From TrEMBL:
Protein name as annotated: Cobalamin biosynthesis protein CobD
Gene Ontology terms for molecular function: ABC-type vitamin B12 transporter activity; threonine-phosphate decarboxylase activity
UniProt organism field: Methylotenera mobilis (strain JLW8 / ATCC BAA-1282 / DSM 17540)
Functional summary from the UniProt entry: Converts cobyric acid to cobinamide by the addition of aminopropanol on the F carboxylic group.
Entry membrane topology: Multi-pass membrane protein
GO cellular component, one term: plasma membrane
Location(s), subcellular: Cell membrane
Single biological process term from Gene Ontology: cobalamin biosynthetic process
């Protein structure tokens, strides 16, 4: 049978799955109850408290790696086996929908934007405390806006584009593996006395999984914003940031928005002087909306590129089978 007569859902299954998952997220948002990531976070917390005790550094690292494998491999394996069921495509769409959080990211940003726009700093501080790990109790308007824009840009990669990238390569299992690994990094990947060694594997493996997606995200931000400024900031500033993957994403994003990010922040009781990223004005409330718009434009770009690649692969397959 010629490839041309296959159903369209088979020919363009990956592109259709990505678009379907993105639309589901836009329409439904995250599940209000029984979200799998919430249950996974509970399991991770329990396991960490069982395994993470005072021990030698190499033992703590081994325990952290063991915990990572115990938590991720069963879910990734089950997700992979789902592709061999009659509902494989639907399972893939569902898994990607659960792995991405574009609508949730926009909602969290809006929850900061609204009170900040109204001058209600206490409420804005509380809202931003829900999405960042820094101390928010004393943040002023500029610092709140800065923290929100940084969170939107970085989570664009962590909660959206990274999952889509690994989904394109390995289907639902790829998206699940990435999202769970990112969740463990968010829970354990801190340089605090408790997690310095136990969280080492979670942090390094998340860095590895983000190596390519982060740079594709940075390129997306550049193409969907002020391209010249984004590329200039990416090349000049990304290496100054303490995270090898967040650096390109946030530098390119800040340049694309032509806003200054970085600066001093307090993490776990310790003041941290962070390099300046981007250019132009200091962050304000309007930059929060600009950041969410940049992420939305980048999502549209990814859907277009994935669809175009599917069409090209189909055309190439048709030529070989002709």
């Amino acid at each position: 049978m010629s490839f041309d007569y296959y159903p369209i859902i088979s020919t363009y299954s990956t592109a259709l799955a990505v678009i379907s998952a993105v639309l589901l997220d836009a329409l439904l948002g995250e599940p209000k109850r029984w979200h799998p990531l919430v249950g996974f976070g509970w399991m991770s917390n329990k396991l960490e408290h069982v395994l993470n005790h005072n021990m030698r550094p190499w033992l703590a690292r081994a325990a952290g790696l063991s915990a990572w494998l115990l938590l991720l491999l069963p879910f990734a394996a089950l997700s992979y086996l789902a592709r061999y069921t009659p509902l494989a495509w639907i399972a893939d769409v569902t898994l990607l929908y659960l792995a991405i959080g574009a609508q949730s990211l926009t909602q969290h940003a809006q929850q900061v934007y609204t009170p900040l726009q109204e001058g209600n700093l206490p409420q804005a501080r509380h809202a931003i405390s829900m999405i960042v790990s820094r101390d928010t109790s004393q943040l002023n308007e500029t610092e709140i806006a800065t923290a929100t824009v940084e969170s939107v840009l970085e989570n664009g990669n962590d909660a959206i584009f990274g999952a889509i990238f690994w989904f394109v390569l390995f289907g639902g299992a790829g998206a699940v593996l990435f999202r769970l690994a990112n969740t463990l990094d968010a829970m354990w990947g801190y340089r605090t006395p408790r997690f310095l060694y136990f969280g080492w594997a979670a942090a390094r493996l998340d860095d590895l999984l983000n190596l390519i997606p982060a740079r594709l995200t940075a390129l997306s931000y550049a193409l969907c914003g002020h391209t010249k400024s984004a590329l200039k900031c990416w090349m000049a500033q990304a290496s100054t940031w303490y995270s090898p993957n967040a650096g390109p994403v946030m530098a390119a994003g800040a340049g694309a928005l032509q806003v200054q990010l970085g600066g001093n922040a307090v993490y776990h009781g310790t003041a941290k002087k962070r390099p300046t990223l981007g250019m132009g004005a200091l962050a304000n409330t309007q930059h929060i909306l600009s950041a969410t718009t940049l992420v939305k434009r980048s999502i549209a770009l990814w859907c277009l590129v994935i669809t175009a690649l599917s069409i090209l692969m189909h055309m190439k397959g048709s030529l070989h089978l002709a």
